[in-house]
Write a structure and sequence with these properties.
Blueprint: H1 2-16, H2 18-21, H3 32-36, H4 39-62, H5 64-72, H6 75-98, H7 103-128, H8 133-158, H9 167-187, H10 204-232, H11 240-263, H12 271-287, H13 293-321, H14 328-348, H15 354-384, H16 391-394
């Protein structure tokens, strides 16, 4: 039963990551200039999502742990919010084919996405809380690889068809389906519940520093993708086959790392290896931006989902180390990701000319890589100088 629970949780998480990787609106609903070159509407939608998440988190905090426990155990909360997400996505598509989309509908959709994200995040956190640390690491590693496979399958199956327009809201909604199945299996399971997980595998300081490094990478790499897309007149997902090839090497390697640690009885997250990979990518992007722009974009596209997943882990471990409630990480981690997106599109509002764009891209990459280098060295010191209680497991 535990293996089935891990697989279902991995599938649910796999679809959940789509909320923070895919553009929030269904494809073909708005003009291409809206999604690729005009930062103002995208910035506005991200602000709406961030404010909605903050309000939802405020309600959970105000009502203490009781509401979070009820949401985490409620099938109706997942089904209802998922149905609202799909209904609003379908309404957007119909309105786009009929005529102009009402402004209130464009505002309502990111708000519904945010509410659904909070509900699913709290449910996922509640379901995975009782897994052991090493089982949780394997589950998250599998979810990253499965999210890539599921996303590619949906694109391959629906892209030639009119139903491909709803593929963006469809993939996150699938997470709710797996959660409902998991809930039904849990109610019929006669095995006693597993004990709560032990203390955090990271100290509070190391977890906070890891989160800061990952946020820096998400901000710097996202700014590069947005600015270079504007400068070159290209979209984020151009040359997708290179991105797929890199993901097929990076994500299975992460899974092997998690499985190897699992066999040794510990949780394994490739913090240092991932930081080195990201820093090397940023330095190469800054120094070789013009001849290797396609390769740099492909590497960033495949590494950003992994950074989002590791950010979730860092926030979760840091809050556990400080004895905070389990559900707070489910609200904090998505809010941080959306806040990064707001900052990225705010940079796009500055309105640099095409002649200035390459210099700005190089500056963003160099500053981000330098800050991440300093952060990584500090992180290594925390892990090796004896201040981090998880040091033996890490070594």
């Amino acid at each position: 039963m535990n293996k089935l629970r891990i697989l279902l949780l991995a599938l649910a998480y796999a679809c959940f990551w789509a909320l923070f990787v895919l553009f929030p609106y269904p494809s073909n609903v708005v003009p291409e200039s809206y999604t690729s070159y005009d930062a103002a509407p995208v910035f506005a939608s991200n602000v709406v999502a961030l404010v909605t998440m903050a309000l939802s988190g405020g309600v959970l905090v105000a009502l203490r742990d009781g509401l979070a426990e009820r949401v985490a155990g409620s099938t109706m909360a997942v089904v209802g919010s998922g149905a609202a997400l799909l209904a609003c996505g379908a309404a957007l598509i119909v309105s786009a084919h009929i005529g102009a989309i009402p402004l209130w509908m464009m505002v309502a959709y990111p708000a519904i996405v945010a509410i659904y994200g909070v509900v699913v995040a709290v449910t996922l956190a509640g379901a995975s809380w009782r897994l052991s640390s090493r089982d949780n690491a394997v589950m998250l590693a599998l979810s990253l690889f499965l999210s890539f496979l599921i996303g590619e399958a949906i694109v391959a199956l629906t892209d030639p068809l009119p139903t491909g327009e709803i593929s963006n809201p469809l993939m996150p909604a699938l997470g709710g389906v797996f959660l409902v199945i998991l809930g039904r299996l849990g109610r019929s399971d006669s095995e006693p519940p597993s004990p709560p997980r032990p203390a955090s595998s990271l100290s509070g300081r190391a977890a906070a520093l890891a989160a800061a490094i990952l946020l820096c990478y998400l901000l710097g790499s996202g700014a590069f993708m947005s600015l270079s897309s504007v400068a070159r007149g290209e979209t984020w997902f151009s040359d997708g086959w290179i991105h797929c090839a890199i993901a097929l090497g990076l994500y299975p390697a992460f899974c092997l790392c998690a499985f190897a640690a699992w066999r040794q009885g510990r949780a394994g997250y490739p913090w240092l290896g991932f930081f080195i990979l990201c820093i090397a990518c940023l330095y190469c992007t800054a120094l070789l931006y013009t001849p290797l722009a396609v390769l740099c974009r492909a590497l960033i596209l495949s590494s950003r989902p992994m950074a989002i997943m590791l950010l979730w882990v860092a926030v979760q471990e840091g809050m556990r180390a400080r004895g905070l409630p389990w559900w707070q990480s489910a609200v904090a981690a998505p809010m941080l990701t959306v806040a990064v997106d707001c900052a990225i599109h705010a940079i796009g509002l500055v309105g640099f000319s095409s002649a200035q764009m390459d210099s700005v891209v190089n500056a963003v990459m160099l500053v981000t890589a330098f800050v991440m280098t300093l952060g990584m060295l500090w992180f290594v010191r925390l892990r090796l100088d004896g201040t981090d209680p998880a040091r033996p497991g890490y070594l």
